């Protein structure tokens, strides 16, 4: 039944509410509000009355006959009594909010009716638009529509009151947005804007400010400048919305163009810019360059998955350059490219040679489709860094040798001295015994060894003068830049705040990266149930410490989204999405453990012997019901003598008179079949037939095949099953299962196209119900 509302039906309702405290509305996003339960009751009372009943063409009485005028009165009375009329709220439910003290208006959608009595919960976006928050940038209206209270100053000491009107908006077809800052790159905000509107907004208000925060700490602000249909607001639910982005003014357009041109001079792939990145192949090396503060991204799509690990080696082309190496898998649970504050594997060291080794047993590589590798040039965000030339590098991806331990270093060249060699106590190098005195005299005069890391330097070299050791850990380096980099990453003056969630402050940059790829609520995943890229935890999803989340292995979003139900395509039961995998495993276990069906003992029959579960099956010679039916009688025959006589009589009748069926191929025991095959229409006499029948009767209990004439479909089905079971592609199923599958789809006679269609359906049935050859229950 469907609700039908006329065009003149409209929801007319308004009320005033005090704004609830911000701590109670922290979870509200976009244009969402909460209202008290009494508001829902008032809305239902004010909702237009619509008819909900049967279609006008469907009779309300069983005896109604349009050609019988005597049934019209009963039908008319039934329509008057059974046609329901009730209040129906429109969908989606939208509201017009007005701040009486300053005249600002904004449209909103309802989140839920759970607010305290006489209070309204507003999201931060709505509070700014209505001028309730400090520093609001919303557009001020010149007058208050609909006769609301006149404009006045806002006093935060008095309770803030908002007027709420129920107002249905037209479906939007077009919106024009204007950036509030110059230089926005569409590649950065286009997908963000689409997801931000879809997840958080029901309406758009003319003059509203949209503020979108990216995971990279950027914030994009857009002014809603024009709407179609023209008006104060539109509804953006269940509609195709065309979006245009235009500069706020000519000055902003020129600034954006100049930034794009400047960025194009150092664009990836140019001689003055960073390398473009691209595909990475095991065994090959990639030579490139990267500007300070930028990234060069590579993708490794194919690597050995047979137990070998992967080594990513990075060689830095400049001695004092600071390059970082990051690796992240691209999978259902990891979608972002590696960055300094969001990566799975990383190397922040100041060595000129870096290596990241991924073991084949690493859990992060499970279900990984691609490996993202990023080269990052450390930058202190100074003007001097921006003018530096690109830093060259060489990147290699090689299959890891299992004989080399992880403790082996790239720079490890030390060896065991021979009998004629000694180790210098100052520089730790192996020196021949005969030249050791001369070497030590020179070495102690010109070289100096660091007592902490045993590195050797020239006494007057800049590297020794700038050599440093961290007092908090074992890190060390040779340049002031490496020391500043180490301190900013591992010992920052203030903790690193997570750009996605405000509840986590990381003491170091690696710990922030670990948080963002593990427990950060805003980490993007590909949900296995809704198949959308979404944050792994929403505002209403359970926490990561929830026992059900820990036991299920799902993210909080997947656990909540997986609570939706669907129908199992095998048994038609209603199952939760998150339980469907286990439910199908039960079906699969049942399929593998099913016993092989029994084919009818009749060599020409393409049926299986049906048995009833929990009920004793009467012995019927191993024949199906159709083949045993002509032999069945109700007389008591404990020794089966009467049954043998009936079998003998039927076979003699086939040999002497035939079955008369043109399709019969029972050449050994049927006169008609012999005539169909060889053209010889001669029946055997009783004397000739008895010697052929007697051995069959004597061995009736042995289980040997019988030869009874059957219908054409069953005969064809048996032959088709035999041929399919012998083919290379279909031999994974036993012949008995092929007979059962063809029987289920009623294959047999028909055209060639119909037969091919039924064979395809039989294969589908086998995939769902039959075990394959050699398949066992695990």
UniProtKB/TrEMBL annotation:
- The organism sits in which domain of life? Eukaryota
Q: Name one Pfam family in it.
A: Znf_XAF1_N
Gene Ontology annotations for the cellular component aspect, listed alphabetically: VCP-NPL4-UFD1 AAA ATPase complex
Residues forming the Ubiquitin fusion degradation protein UFD1 N-terminal subdomain domain are 80-137, 171-247
Has keyword Membrane?
no
Q: Name one GO molecular function term.
A: polyubiquitin modification-dependent protein binding
The residues covered by the DUF7590 domain are 273-399
Q: Which keywords fit this entry according to its UniProt record?
A: Ubl conjugation pathway
This chain's protein is named Ubiquitin-protein ligase E3A N-terminal zinc-binding domain-containing protein
Organism of derivation: Endocarpon pusillum (strain Z07020 / HMAS-L-300199)
């Amino acid at each position: 039944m469907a609700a039908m509302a006329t065009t003149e039906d409209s929801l007319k309702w308004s009320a005033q509410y005090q704004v609830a405290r911000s701590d109670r509305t922290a979870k509200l996003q976009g244009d969402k509000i909460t209202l008290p339960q009494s508001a829902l009751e008032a809305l239902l009372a004010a909702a237009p009355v619509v008819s909900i009943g049967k279609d006008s063409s469907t009779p309300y009485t069983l005896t109604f006959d349009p050609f019988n005028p005597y049934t019209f009165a009963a039908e008319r009375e039934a329509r008057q009594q059974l046609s329901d009329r009730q209040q129906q709220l429109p969908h989606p439910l939208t509201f017009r909010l007005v701040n009486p003290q300053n005249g600002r208006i904004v449209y909103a959608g309802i989140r839920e009716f759970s607010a305290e009595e006489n209070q309204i919960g507003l999201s931060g976006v709505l509070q700014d638009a209505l001028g309730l928050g400090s520093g609001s940038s919303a557009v001020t209206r010149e007058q208050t529509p609909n006769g609301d209270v006149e404009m006045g100053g806002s006093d935060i000491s008095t309770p803030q009151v908002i007027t709420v009107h129920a107002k249905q908006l037209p479906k939007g077809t077009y919106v024009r947005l204007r950036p509030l800052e110059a230089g926005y790159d569409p590649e950065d905000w286009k997908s963000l804007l689409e997801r931000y509107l879809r997840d958080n907004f029901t309406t758009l208000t003319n003059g509203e400010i949209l503020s979108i925060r990216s995971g990279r700490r950027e914030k994009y602000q857009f002014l809603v400048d024009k709407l179609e249909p023209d008006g104060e607001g539109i509804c953006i639910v269940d509609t195709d919305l065309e979006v245009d982005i235009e500069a706020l003014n000519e000055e902003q357009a020129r600034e954006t163009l100049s930034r794009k041109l400047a960025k194009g001079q150092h664009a990836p792939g140019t001689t003055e810019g960073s390398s473009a990145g691209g595909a990475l192949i095991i065994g090959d090396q990639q030579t490139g360059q990267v500007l300070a503060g930028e990234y060069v991204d590579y993708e490794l799509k194919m690597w050995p998955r047979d137990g070998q690990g992967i080594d990513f080696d990075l060689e830095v082309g400049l001695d004092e350059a600071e390059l970082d190496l990051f690796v992240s898998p691209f999978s259902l649970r990891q979608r972002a490219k590696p960055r300094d504050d969001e990566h799975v594997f990383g190397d922040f060291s100041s060595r000129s040679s870096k290596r990241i080794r991924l073991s084949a047993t690493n859990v992060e590589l499970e279900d990984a489709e691609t490996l993202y590798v990023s080269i990052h040039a450390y930058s202190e965000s100074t003007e001097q860094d921006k003018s530096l030339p690109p830093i060259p590098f060489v990147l290699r991806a090689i299959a890891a040798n299992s004989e080399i331990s992880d403790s082996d270093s790239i720079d490890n060249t030390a060896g065991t001295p021979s009998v004629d060699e000694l180790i210098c106590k100052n520089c730790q190098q192996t020196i021949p015994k005969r030249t050791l005195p001369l070497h030590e005299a020179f070495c102690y005069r010109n070289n100096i060894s660091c007592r902490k890391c045993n590195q050797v330097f020239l006494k007057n070299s800049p590297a020794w003068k700038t050599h440093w050791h961290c007092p908090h850990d074992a890190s060390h380096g040779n340049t002031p830049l490496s020391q500043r980099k180490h301190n900013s990453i591992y010992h920052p003056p203030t903790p690193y705040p997570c750009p996605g969630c405000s509840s986590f402050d990381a003491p170091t940059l690696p710990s922030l990266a670990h948080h963002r790829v593990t427990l950060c609520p805003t980490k993007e995943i590909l949900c296995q149930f809704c198949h959308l890229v979404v944050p792994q935890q929403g505002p209403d999803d359970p926490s990561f410490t929830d026992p059900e989340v820990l036991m299920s292995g799902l993210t909080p979003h997947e656990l909540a989204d997986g609570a939706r139900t669907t129908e199992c395509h095998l048994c038609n039961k209603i199952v939760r999405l998150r339980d469907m995998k286990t439910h199908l495993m039960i079906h699969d276990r049942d399929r593998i453990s099913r016993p092989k069906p029994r084919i009818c003992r009749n060599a020409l029959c393409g049926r299986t012997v049906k048995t009833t579960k929990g009920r004793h099956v009467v012995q019927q010679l191993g024949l199906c019901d159709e083949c045993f039916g002509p032999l069945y009688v109700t007389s008591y025959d404990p020794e089966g003598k009467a049954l043998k006589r009936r079998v003998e009589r039927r076979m003699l009748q086939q040999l002497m008179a035939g079955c008369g069926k043109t399709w019969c191929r029972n050449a050994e025991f049927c006169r008609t079949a012999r005539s169909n095959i060889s053209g010889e229409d001669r029946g055997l006499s009783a004397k000739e037939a008895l010697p052929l029948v007697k051995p069959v009767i004597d061995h009736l209990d042995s289980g040997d095949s019988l030869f009874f004439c059957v219908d054409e479909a069953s005969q064809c089905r048996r032959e088709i099953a035999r041929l399919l079971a012998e083919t290379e592609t279909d031999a994974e199923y036993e012949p008995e299962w092929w007979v059962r599958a063809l029987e289920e789809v009623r294959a047999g006679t028909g055209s060639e196209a119909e037969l091919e269609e039924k064979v395809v359906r039989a294969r589908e049935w086998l995939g769902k119900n039959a075990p394959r050859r050699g398949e066992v229950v695990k």
